[in-house]
Amino acid sequence: MRYRTWEPGVLVCIGRLTPMPEVDAAPQNSQQEEVETVATADIVLGVLSYNNAATIAEVIRNAIHGLEANFPGGRSVLVHADGGSHDGTAELALQAAPDRKTMVQVAYPVYPVHLLSPDYNGIPGKGNAVRAVFEIARKLDAKACALVGADLRELTPQWTEALVRPVIEGGFDLVTPYYVRHKYDGTVINGIVYPLVRALYGKQIRQPIGADFGYSAKLILHLTQQAPWDSDVTGAGVDAWITMQSIAWNFQLAQANLGPRVQNAGGPPLELSTALAQVLGSLFTQIHHTASAWQRFRASEPVPVFGSAPRQAPEHLPVDVQPMIDSFRLGFRNLREIWREVLPPATLLELKKLASQPDATFRFVDSTWARIIYDFALAHRMRIMDSNHLLQAITPLYLGWLASYALQVREANAGEVEQFVEALCQSFETQKGYFVARWRWPDRFNP
Amino acid sequence: MLTHANEVLALAAGRIVNTVAGFIPGLLALLIMLVFTILAAVLVRSVLRRILERVRFDDRVTQWGVPALAGWEPARRPSAVVAQLSFWVVVLLGLLAGISALDPTLTSLLVVRLFDYLPKVAAAAAVSIAGFLLARFLARSVLINAVNLQIQSARLLSLGVKWLVMVLTAAMAMDHLGIGGPIVQLAFAILFGGIVLTLSLALGLGSKEMVSRSWERQADKSEREAEEQFHHL
Q: How far is A357 from chain B (nearest CA, A)?
């Protein structure tokens, strides 16, 4: 495997992507001229890919069709950023473009660390890819930019409209996705990310992290003017960073109703503890960096939803919660000493009672779960232990919560599941005072 | 004859008296030095203990993972241990200075031997500290990952890894200090082999269900798809 070690920058190829191009002054100047040849664009649609040969062609065709059908008067450019696929994704993307003059393929820095530890979103060095697309959008003076993942099996033309129209016509700066998901999909989002972001930042953003977003020129300018993006942002944490930056700096937020997100299975799924560590690590890091912002929000407010995609969730198989309950109990038996460094005695006592409950009545209290997440966020900030150990140690607790959630929503319909999630969010908001107090005076609450 | 015997006795007594007379000042100097040294050591211990309490040394050591001293009695807290250590260091230095009053060459020899041995002590201490930290880190890594992989004997694996690293560290430290020689090497080999065997058994017995599930999944892909019941993200 060859590693690219060029300086973070943007290499633009109009037409065929040349693998591993060398970086020197002459080629960059000619590429700069090519960007100037493209001149301007009203809308930039970024497609991020990595080994998505099975779906990239369909995604590109549908995305371009969506732009042409919904924004016929505007000039649209499709920017394809590939993370070094070795299954012909880049070539297939180029072949799929009906008009090569409206498609730009861009390479971005992929460092060894991005390849050694795969990201949960499947794109190595996603932050660098996003930045590369943003730079193109700025150079082309685009009014709006949308990003979609290349792993989608069903990207409809309405997706691009839902992500872009609120920016162009509604004046919004960040459009987050609002998927229709089955109750057993996106459980980390339902159980941790959504309640946490809602409680701390006061915005009811249903999917704060994901793969499909819309951005305004103003937001892109702000993000690209930030200090050099650090390793957390250039990797898997870019979504959380963008969402929290947008809230902290009072940008206008909207949500796009995209319907179900059906993605291609791709390679073997990332191990749960690794994925959880990446997601929580990026969240907790951003919470630390924006501490002055989230402490001033008191209550949450809804974020407007645009788009008219159908709200029919895909079917799903029944689940078996026994392995998750067993994992929780195994974690309680073996990781109690580690949890003791993070959680107060009262929480440990509740976990002890939970571990001894019969399977049929296994119930994780919402307030306990909220406090556990807050305690881990604080422990991450205080650096009580190696952050990887800390974040992976939460996996059995998450599985315990998930088992409890699955048991409670087993017979529930979509509306009842949303009520359950809403109750969980209320618990997170209620427990925010506990978190703020511990954050401000950590010495007083040492477990 | 009696006169001769008296003269010899008188000479011998005189030599003894002279030797003692020559020794007593040095001894007095040593005792005075010791008294002042002990006073200074008490002062140093007291000041150092106050400083360490002010900078919350005990809490920081706990965070670094130094094993908790039994009972956490006040006299055995890390700050108390460090303060007591400083007391004895000052006393030792004072003793060396005092001995020089008795016999300057003896002190020089002692100091030379001590400084010859100090680099080995420093190397052994560095190896011990590094080994202890590594053992703790690896033990925790193994424990968490084994639990997440649902290996029932996770704690045993973790302990095994920890003791493996600590036994190796102890053997290296003792080798640096030149203690034990071949006996230590033999004992290390026996212990190391025993721990590796125990770990192998623990891993094999504890993860046999996981391994068989993995093989079954490889053979039947439809079963694998059914088991992926949650899309967490």
A: 20
Query: A-chain residues within 8 Å CB-CB of B64?
Result: none
Q: Where are the alpha helices (DSSP H) in A8-111?
A: 25-38, 56-70, 89-96
Domain boundaries, chain A: 11-306, 322-445
In the beta sheet, which residues pair with residue B186? none
* Cβ-contact A146, A215 below 8 angstroms: yes
Nearest to A127 by CA among A286, A20, A300, A325: A286
Q: Which of A184, A271, A326 sits opposite B230 (nearest CB)?
A: A184
Contact A79, A104 (CB under 8 A): yes
**Which residues neighbour A145 within 8 Å (Cβ) at sequence distance 6 or greater?**
A43, A44, A45, A46, A133, A134, A137, A214, A215, A216, A217, A220
Contact A338 B140 (CB under 8 A): yes
Question: Do A334 and B147 make contact, defined as CB atoms within 8 angstroms?
Answer: yes
C-alpha closest to that of A241 among A272, A194, A183, A287? A287
- The predicted model scores a pTM of 0.78
Give me the sign of the Cα torsion angle B85, B91, B97, B100.
negative
Of B141, B147, B233, the CB nearest to A279: B233
Contact criterion met (CB < 8 Å) for A272 and B155:
no
Tell me which chain B residues have a C-beta less than 8 angstroms from the C-beta of A319.
229-230
Respond yes or no on whether ipTM tops 0.95: no
- pLDDT by residue, tens only, chain A of 447 residues: 222 322 333 333 333 333 333 333 333 444 455 455 556 788 999 998 888 888 888 888 888 888 888 888 878 888 888 888 888 888 888 888 777 777 888 877 777 766 666 676 677 778 888 988 999 999 889 999 999 888 877 777 788 888 999 999 999 999 999 988 888 888 999 999 999 999 999 999 999 988 889 999 999 999 988 866 666 665 667 888 899 889 989 999 999 988 887 766 665 567 889 889 988 998 999 899 899 989 988 889 999 998 876 666 666 667 888 999 999 999 999 999 999 999 999 999 999 999 999 998 999 999 999 999 999 999 999 888 899 999 999 999 999 999 999 999 988 888 899 999 999 999 999 999 999 999 998 876 555
* Residues forming a β-bridge with A46: A79, A147
Which contacts qualify for A414-421: CB closer than 8 Å, 24 or more apart?
Answer: A414/A183, A414/A311, A414/A313, A417/A183, A421/A190, A421/A194, A421/A195
Across the interface, of B148, B150, B228, the residue whose CB is closest to A269 is: B228
Contacting residues of A for B138, CB less than 8 Å apart:
none
As given in the structure block, the two tokens for residue A9 are 């920058």
For A409, the token pair is 């929503």
Q: Are B146 and B154 in contact (CB under 8 A)?
A: yes
The size of the A-B interface in CB pairs under 8 A is 71
CB A423 within 8 A of CB A345: no
**Topology of domain B116-221, CATH:** Helix Hairpins (1.10.287)
Of the candidates A269, A331, A389, which has its C-beta nearest B141's C-beta?
A389
Kindly report the length of chain B.
233
Residues A201 and A286: beta-carbon distance below 8 Å: no
| CA gap A143, A137 in Å, rounded | 8
Name the phi and psi angles at A149, rounded to 5: -85, 150
The superfamily in CATH containing domain A11-306 is: Spore Coat Polysaccharide Biosynthesis Protein SpsA; Chain A (3.90.550.10)
